[in-house]
Design goal:
heterodimer; A: FAD/NAD(P)-binding domain; D-Amino Acid Oxidase, Chain A, domain 2; 3 domains; eight-stranded mixed β-sheet; globular; B: alpha/beta; Rossmann fold; 2 domains; five-stranded parallel β-sheet; about 25% strand
C-alpha cells in the first residue's frame, strides 16, 4: 500500500460531515482549535439529509421525553436566530381526529408547558382556516412553534463557517483506520475515494461524529457502541400541500407529521429496526409507501390525489444504554462518550444519538469535552454567532433600493444562499436557467462548483436543489452535466450523469405510478433515446445516495 | 356528430392513420390531447435497431426473429416489408423529406455526441454516413441554449477522426429571448427564425463556421415546415445539418404540423386539446359512441374507431399504485405482477413497465374482458408486448400499425 504522510498535524479531526460533524467542526474552529473535518462521501449524505426537515418545537417529545422536548425548544429558538436563512417559521398544529383520544390533548398541552413550549389549544375551525389542508373532521387542534429547516443549507452553512475560522474540509475521504499507539488514538488513515490513495493525518484528538456509521469507526479502536439502526421512510409530494406543519396529536406513530419545505411537502415517517449491514443501502418498500399514504391521508386527505415525487429512507443512530446490550432501553437523547473513561482509549470521543434539531447542542458537548481534554479554555459561541448567509438584514430596505421587485429567480437564489448570494455570478450568460423547476442558474452552478465542495450532480443537488423539483432532473441534469464536464472532464461527467439518473430513479421507483411514472418514462426516452446514454457503463453503480 | 372513423390520439400513429383514411375520402376526426412522443423526437424514425441487445443491420430481416406477441409479428414479416416501402413516399406527400434505405439501418448523432441506430432520417439531420465525407466540421450552437451539448458533439466527431470547432452565435432576435430565462427552448428559438431573423442567424453561423467543410447546428430551425432549413442551407452555402436537441423537439413539432396540415387540407377534423372521456360498448361488443371533455354531452359517433392514444407519457394507459388501466374504454391491459415487478433497479436496464399496453387480437382489435371490440382498432405505442425504447422501434410500430389498420378499414368497406 502506498501510504503518504502529510506533514500537518491537527488539534482535532472530526469524522462525518452530517449536521453534527459540521457543527462540531464549526465550534472547534471558533474556539481556536486547528480542525479537520473528514467525510467519506458528501455533506449530509447520511441521516442529516434523510429526515423531515422539521424544526421541532419539541412538542412531539413533550409527553414521552421531557428532557428532549426542552432541548428541542431551546435549539429551535437558537436556530431561528442564527440560521435564519435555513429556517422557515411555518408554525405547527397538533390535530386530534375523531378516532383519537381528546383527553390526550390535555396531557399534551400540559407537558408542552412543562418543557417550556408555547402550546395553545385553538378552535378546530380556526385551525382549518389557517391551514385548509387539515382533515375537516378534526375535533381538536393545538398550535405549537414548529417550523421547517433545510438540513442541506444548515450543514453547508456550518461547513462554510468552520472554514472561515480556519478549519480544513475533506469530502470523499473515508476513514480506513484510526492511528492507535499504546492505547491512544493520534490520527486517522484516510482513503481518497476518487484516487484510492491512502494518507495518514495526525491529530491530538479524534471526534467520531459518524452517525450510524460511528459504530464501525469506534470498532477500529476496538470499541463497541451498541447502536440500533432504525429506518424511517418518507414521501415527498410535488408541491406544498400545507403551509403549516401538521402533526397528529397522539403518541408518536407512523406517518403522523406533514412538513412543508421549500417547494414541496413531506410525510413521514415509518420506524423499523433494520440489520446493521443494510444501512448503506436503504430502499423504501411498497408496504412502507402504502402505510405512509394511508396514514398521511388521515391528517391531510388531499395527499390521496397529490403527486408523489419520490420516497426515501434514513437511518437514525439510536444508542443503547451501556448496561443494556439488548437495546430495550434505547435513548433518543444525546450520547457523548469519552473513550478514555469508558474504554481506556485516549484521544477519542464519540458524539451520537440526538437528532437534527439538537445538532448544535451535540457539537457544543463534544467540543466542550475536546477543549477539556486538550486543556483549552474557550467559551462556546455557536448559539450567538450568525451562520454565513443568515446575517440579519432588512429585506424591505433592500427591495426599496431595487427599482423593481426581485424576480422569482432572484428570490429562489436568495432563499437558498441568503446573504451569500451576492457571490453568485450574474450576467446574461450566467442567468441562463438550468433547472427550471427550482430556478437554478448557470451562475449558481458555477458558484457551487467553485465554493461549495461540489464533485458530482448529487452534491450539486444538495447545494442548489437542482433536480429536486417536479421533473426530478429529466431536463436539467443533462444541462448541468455539460457545465460539470468543463471542470471534471467529459467521461467523468457522463458517468456521473448516469449515476445521478439512477439515484433519482431509486427514489421514484417505489412511487412510480401516475405522473411520476410518466416523468420516469419521459426521462428514459430523453436519456437513452434522444441522447443515447446508458451504454457508457453497462452497470451504473449507484454510489452515495 | 357522425364520422366514418374517429381516432383517439393525435400523435404520429393517429396522424398517419387519419391521413391515410382522409386520402380515401373518409370522414375522419382525430381527438388529440396535444401531448405526444413527437415532442421528444430525435429527427429520425426507428424501425428495428436492436433485438435481444444485438445491433440490427437489416430491420426487415430482423423482424422475422421477433416473438409472436410483438406487433410486427402480428403483421408478419412480408406485410412489414410491404408497408415499410410506403413510408418515404407517404411522408414526402405530407411535405416531410426522409432519407435512408428501407432495408438497412443507419446511425444518427445524438446531442451528447453518441451514435444511435435509426432507419429513416429527416433530410436535414446528420447521420454517421454523412460525416464520413468531411474532415473539418464546425459545431455551431446558440448562446444560452442549454439543450444541446457542443463539447460532447465535438468529442463524438473527434472519435471519427474529424477535426471539430465549437462556437456559439446569437442575433438581436435571439438576444431578446435570452433576457427571459424560460424562453431558451429549441421550439421558442425555432418560432423566431424566419425572414430577417433567419438571415441574421445564417450570417452568424457562416462567420462562426470559418473554413470548415460542413456545419452542425442544433435543430432550432423549421418549426412548421422545411422551408426555413432550405433557406438557411442555401444562404450558408456549405453543407449544413441539424442534430437533435433535448425536448421540446423542433423536428417533432415540424412532423406533427405537416401531417396535421395535410390531414386538414383533405377535410379531416383535428380536435386539439380535447380528451376522450369514455365510450359505450354495446352488448354485441361494438362501440356505439364516445364522449369528449370539450364536446360534453353530445355523442361522437363513427363506424370505426382507432385507439392511438400512446403509452404512459400520452395517457394512453395510466398507472395507479395497484393497477394499470386504459382510461377510455377500460380495455384489457397486459401487466406482469404487482408494482414491485414493474421496474428494474437499474434505470437503464430493460424496464418491464415499458412493455405494458392494451392486449390486442391478431387483427389489432383490442380486448375487453377477453373479448375483442369489433369496430375498434389499436395502433402505435398503446399496444403492449414490445419495448420500443430498447428496440429503437417506436416510430416504426406507430407508422406501420397505423398504415395497416387504415388499409384494413378501407378494405372492410
Amino acid at each position: 500500500m502506498n501510504t503518504q504522510q502529510t506533514p500537518k498535524a491537527y488539534d482535532v479531526i472530526i469524522i462525518g460531515a452530517g449536521a453534527t460533524g459540521a457543527g462540531t467542526a464549526r465550534d472547534c474552529a471558533m474556539r481556536g482549535l486547528s480542525t479537520l473535518l473528514v467525510e467519506r462521501l458528501d455533506f449530509t449524505a447520511g441521516a442529516t439529509g434523510r429526515n423531515h426537515g422539521l424544526l421541532h418545537s419539541g412538542a412531539r417529545y413533550a409527553v414521552t421525553d421531557g428532557e428532549s422536548a426542552s432541548e428541542c425548544i431551546k435549539e429551535n429558538m437558537i436556530l431561528r436566530r442564527i440560521a435564519r436563512n435555513c429556517v422557515e417559521d411555518t408554525g405547527g398544529f397538533f390535530v386530534t381526529l375523531p378516532e383519537d383520544d381528546l383527553d390526550y390533548q390535555k396531557l399534551f398541552v400540559e407537558s408542552c408547558h412543562k418543557a417550556g413550549i408555547n402550546a395553545e389549544a385553538v378552535d378546530p375551525k380556526l385551525a382549518l382556516q389557517m391551514e385548509p389542508a387539515i382533515n375537516k373532521d378534526i375535533i381538536g387542534a393545538v398550535k405549537v412553534p414548529d417550523g421547517a429547516v433545510d438540513p442541506f443549507r444548515l450543514t453547508t452553512a456550518n461547513v462554510i463557517d468552520a472554514q472561515r475560522h480556519g478549519a480544513d474540509v475533506m469530502t470523499y475521504h473515508k476513514v480506513e483506520d484510526l492511528l492507535l499507539t499504546n492505547g491512544r488514538v493520534h490520527g486517522v488513515t484516510l482513503r481518497d475515494a476518487r484516487t484510492g490513495e491512502l494518507k495518514n493525518i495526525e491529530a491530538r484528538l479524534v471526534i467520531n461524529a459518524g452517525g450510524i456509521w460511528g459504530h464501525e469507526i469506534a470498532a477500529k479502536a476496538g470499541i463497541r457502541i451498541n447502536m440500533f439502526p432504525a429506518k424511517g421512510a418518507l414521501l415527498i409530494f410535488g408541491h406544498r400541500v400545507n403551509n403549516i406543519v401538521i402533526n397528529r396529536c397522539r403518541k408518536p406513530s407512523d406517518a403522523d407529521i406533514l412538513v412543508p419545505g421549500d417547494t414541496i411537502s413531506l410525510i413521514g415517517t415509518t420506524s423499523s429496526r433494520v440489520p446493521y449491514d443494510s444501512v448503506d443501502n436503504m430502499e423504501v418498500t411498497q408496504e412502507e409507501v402504502d402505510i405512509l399514504l394511508r396514514e398521511g391521508m388521515q391528517i391531510a386527505p388531499s395527499l390521496a390525489y397529490t403527486r408523489i415525487l419520490r420516497a426515501y429512507a434514513g437511518v437514525r443512530p439510536l444508542v443503547a444504554a451501556d448496561n443494556d446490550p439488548s437495546g430495550r432501553s434505547i435513548s433518543r437523547g444525546i450520547v457523548c462518550l469519552d473513550h478514555a473513561k469508558r474504554d481506556g482509549v485516549e484521544g477519542f470521543i464519540t458524539i451520537t444519538g440526538g437528532k437534527l434539531m439538537t445538532y448544535r447542542l451535540m457539537a457544543e458537548w463534544a467540543t466542550n469535552m475536546a477543549c477539556e481534554k486538550l486543556g483549552v479554555d474557550a467559551k462556546c459561541e455557536t448559539a450567538e454567532k450568525y451562520l454565513p448567509g443568515s446575517e440579519p438584514e432588512n429585506r424591505e430596505e433592500r427591495e426599496k433600493s431595487h427599482t423593481i421587485a426581485l424576480s422569482t429567480e432572484q428570490l429562489a437564489i436568495e432563499g437558498r444562499h441568503g446573504s451569500l448570494s451576492s457571490q453568485i455570478p450574474k450576467d446574461i450568460n450566467d442567468d441562463a436557467m438550468v433547472c427550471e423547476c427550482e430556478k437554478v442558474s448557470v451562475g449558481e452552478i458555477k458558484y457551487a462548483i467553485d465554493k461549495l465542495h461540489v464533485n458530482n450532480l448529487v452534491n450539486l443537488r444538495r447545494r442548489t436543489r437542482l433536480g429536486m423539483g417536479t421533473c426530478q432532473g429529466s431536463i436539467c441534469a443533462c444541462r448541468a452535466s455539460a457545465i460539470m464536464s468543463k471542470r471534471f472532464g467529459q467521461t467523468a461527467a457522463l458517468t456521473d450523469l448516469e449515476s445521478f439518473v439512477n439515484e433519482r430513479w431509486k427514489g421514484m421507483r417505489p412511487v412510480a405510478w401516475g405522473q411520476t411514472l410518466v416523468e420516469a418514462e419521459f426521462s428514459a426516452w430523453i436519456y437513452e433515446g434522444v441522447c443515447g446514454l446508458g451504454n457508457i457503463n453497462e452497470k451504473t453503480i449507484c454510489d452515495n445516495k | 356528430m357522425k364520422y366514418d372513423i374517429i381516432i383517439i390520439g393525435g400523435g404520429l400513429s393517429g396522424l398517419v392513420a387519419g391521413l391515410s383514411l382522409a386520402k380515401e375520402n373518409k370522414r375522419v376526426a382525430i381527438v388529440s390531447l396535444g401531448q405526444s412522443a413527437l415532442h421528444f423526437s430525435s429527427g429520425s424514425l426507428g424501425l428495428l435497431g436492436t433485438v435481444d441487445g444485438k445491433a440490427v443491420e437489416d430491420p426487415l430481416e430482423a423482424v422475422k426473429t421477433l416473438p409472436a406477441e410483438h406487433p410486427y409479428s402480428m403483421l408478419g414479416a412480408e406485410r412489414v416489408k410491404e408497408l415499410a416501402v410506403k413510408v418515404k413516399p407517404f411522408f414526402a406527400d405530407a411535405g416531410i423529406t426522409l432519407r435512408g434505405e428501407d432495408s438497412r439501418n443507419s446511425e444518427r448523432m445524438t446531442p451528447m455526441g453518441e451514435f444511435k441506430r435509426c432507419w429513416l432520417t429527416l433530410d436535414d439531420f446528420i447521420t454517421r454516413e454523412d460525416l464520413s465525407k468531411y474532415k473539418k466540421v464546425a459545431v455551431v450552437s446558440v448562446l444560452s441554449f442549454l439543450d444541446f451539448y457542443p463539447d460532447f458533439v465535438a468529442s463524438g466527431l473527434r472519435k471519427l477522426g474529424i477535426e471539430p470547432s465549437v462556437s456559439y452565435v446569437t442575433t438581436p432576435e435571439i438576444d431578446r429571448l435570452r433576457r427571459s430565462t424560460a424562453e431558451m427552448r429549441a421550439t421558442s428559438i425555432g418560432r423566431q427564425l424566419h425572414g430577417k431573423a433567419l438571415d441574421e442567424f445564417a450570417d452568424a453561423v457562416m462567420k462562426a463556421a470559418g473554413d470548415a467543410d460542413a456545419i452542425l447546428i442544433p435543430c432550432v430551425v423549421g418549426m412548421d415546415d422545411e422551408e426555413p432549413v432550405k433557406a438557411l442551407r442555401a444562404k450558408v452555402g456549405k453543407p449544413l445539418y441539424c442534430v437533435a436537441t433535448t425536448p421540446m423537439s423542433v423536428a417533432g413539432q415540424r412532423m406533427q404540423t405537416q401531417l396535421r396540415r395535410r390531414f386538414e387540407r383533405l377535410g379531416g377534423t383535428y380536435l386539439l386539446g380535447d380528451n376522450v372521456t369514455d365510450g359505450r360498448i354495446s352488448e354485441n361488443g361494438e362501440i356505439e359512441y364516445i364522449h369528449t371533455v370539450n364536446i360534453g354531452d353530445e355523442k361522437l359517433v363513427a363506424d370505426s374507431y382507432i385507439l392511438a392514444s400512446g403509452d404512459f407519457f400520452s395517457r394512453g394507459i395510466i398507472a395507479e399504485p395497484h393497477r394499470i388501466y386504459e382510461p377510455v374504454f377500460g380495455l384489457d391491459v397486459d401487466v406482469d405482477g404487482d408494482r414491485d415487478k414493474w421496474f428494474d433497479r437499474n434505470f437503464f436496464a430493460e424496464q418491464p413497465y415499458m412493455k405494458f399496453g392494451v392486449a390486442v387480437s391478431d387483427d389489432f382489435h383490442p380486448l375487453k374482458d377477453g373479448k375483442t371490440v369489433k369496430n375498434l382498432y389499436a395502433v402505435g405505442s398503446v399496444i403492449g408486448g414490445h419495448n420500443a425504447l430498447k428496440e429503437e422501434s417506436g416510430a416504426g410500430t406507430a407508422v406501420l400499425t397505423a398504415l395497416h389498420v387504415a388499409d384494413k378499414i378501407l378494405k372492410n368497406n
